Amino acid sequence: MIAEHLALFVASSLRLAMPLVFASTGELVSERAGVLNLSLEGMMLTGAFFGAWGSWSTNDPLLGLLIGVLAALIVALVQAWLSVSVGANQLVVGIGFNILALGATTLLYREVFGALSRDAIPGFGKWHVPVLGDLPWMGTALFQQTGLVYLGLGLLLVTWLALDQTAWGLAIKAVGEEPRAADQAGVAIRRIRYGAVLFAGGMAGLGGAFVSLGDIHTFTENMTNGAGYLAITAVIFGAWRPGKTFLACLLFGAATALQFQLPDMGVTVPTTLLLLLPYVLALLAVVGAVGRTAPPAALALPYRRG
User: Any residues with CB less than 8 A from the CB of 80 and at least 6 apart, and which?
Assistant: First the structure.
């Protein structure tokens, strides 16, 4: 019985961490390039809604996923224009996009799904990995997840290698640390930052669509419920390193999974405490990280040549 509960807890923790893994991987690249996307929550919510709408409209979750990512990319493009080209305050822009996304998706949800809010939409089922999925305990926990879980882990690994082992990764870091020196060396600052923000938007769209298509198979108002903010916190807690950021996402996923696992195991804990647990951990993580890690030197600072 204990082994079954543990396997279920591990599986749930990984599944609940994946929206954060998608979003934080993109945000990590953007922040290393010097652009803070506080609008990550709005991008995820946009991806979740349009992913659900696209899947419901076409009866194809893959098309829905692509539509959700495209919608998030549009938000990211406007974010990049305001943050990089216009030089607007990135904190203000991010908060504004989050408010806009919440209001727009709530209105569209009531118009499109109002009468169908309880109906399931086409989504992605679990993928049983051959051979590995049949392993005792570990097979159930790790190798019987939706295919989007493995996509997210793969993108994390590729991003990790690209940042540490390629000229593109070196340019990203240079732009985020010393943009003037990078500019003098011939690095296209705007192009790098635009690309980083668009990458963050695409990953946030995948994270949001994962919630509506890979997990719940429906859309509800404000269904991301602060996941974008937790993803940004994971980047800070992870000291802007992919491996540590991934571990932070797993921590938040495990804290969320406890909301469901502890009552099933007969452990009596106040519901409000369980709901607060991921955010309490996020606060403690940020407080613990302050003073021990330093963000990219040019983070949230617009660059003007000359």
Answer: 35, 193, 194, 197, 198
